[in-house]
What we know:
Elements: E1 2-8, H1 13-17, H2 30-42, E2 50-53, H3 57-67, E3 74-76, H4 93-99, H5 101-109, H6 122-139, E4 143-149, H7 151-162, E5 180-186, E6 189-197
Helix pairs in contact: 2-3, 4-5, 6-7
Amino acid sequence: MLNLYVIRHGETEWNKEKRSQGRLDSSLTDKGKEDARLLGARLHDTEFKQIISSPSGRTLETAKLIRGEREIPLLTDERLMEIDLGEWQGKTEDEIKTIYPDEFHTYWNEPDIYTSIGGETFLQVQQRLVDFLEDLEKTVTNGNVLIVTHGVVIKTLYLLCHNSTLKHLWDPPFIHGTSLTILTLDAGRKELLLEACVSHCS
């Protein structure tokens, strides 16, 4: 049985500005870096077979801060990347609301029918996550694996664990920076043990 420790990257400069990142990137804030170090201390006594991160800069930096001086293999997988937000990327929430009011509404209120302008749907994100998890179980059969990814990816993971639909994508909990989710993965069956915990955060 696999134990997955799933973490969202630390707070970034664009998070603070409410600016959409998607496949673009911005640096971790001082808080984001400190929270990642604190999470690393929290998990110091947990043995990990490997760390798998989205290749985005903000996730890789978070992963390295959590790992610290420990010798744990760090891999990347593009299937863990954040949703491609197309034309929204780099724009602030207010700009998106003004330019794309209909799409903005469906994104937050009807995620099951949201379509991106030049990007991905939530279903596409979930499908690549399913592929990732299936492949992971084939290559790592037991032990602990640390996964560093993004908010939307984690939200679609919750739906898989609860056998729920995309209509419920934004149901609680909120996925804060460096929040920790723990689940077991056994022959495709997923069981949540801890959801979006930030007790380590500054």
